[in-house]
Amino acid sequence: MRRLLLTALAIGSVTATAACSSGTQSGEPVVVTEIVTATAGEQQPLQDSGPAAPPEPAAPAAADPSDYAAEAGYFFSSASGKWKCGIRRADAGCHGPLPAGAPLSYGQRPTGAVVGSGAAELVKFSSPEFMLQSGRTAPVLPYGQTLTINGFSCSIDQTAGVTCRNDGTGRGFTVSDIAYDLF
Length: 183
Fold this sequence. Notes:
- The chain is mainly beta and 183 residues long.
- Helices cover 10% and strands 26% of the residues.
- The chain contains 1 helix and 12 strands.
């Protein structure tokens, strides 16, 4: 009973100390990560773990693939209209204006990027492979949403551009009119 009473007093002391004192010079709240129990005559120091960690960013929202289904794949556009992209059964790719410094693809200026089961690459498309063939404009994939289907995921970031990856291999690309990254 005496040990239970001392434990309750120790917990109450921790709560009161945390509530009444910031414990840091910056005035940020202290997160107590250790509850100490003591028996009569023992003293245990409390440990300050520092400022509280920031919350984890929210996971991107999932886009509904049925909103993008057309012809032989799932097609979308960027909000700017610069990028036309698609996910097909075995690959994902985008058509759009790559930066002037992008390397040539078989001696020609690339017009987009593609990732399949191998490495992602910049390519010169001879036909609009990742655009709707019907002449319609594909719906816009909103910033912060990810379209995932057929083992590929694509998303658009307002600053970085369009990213598509093979979910199985982790390989993919990020493209914009000012930068590109093949990974």
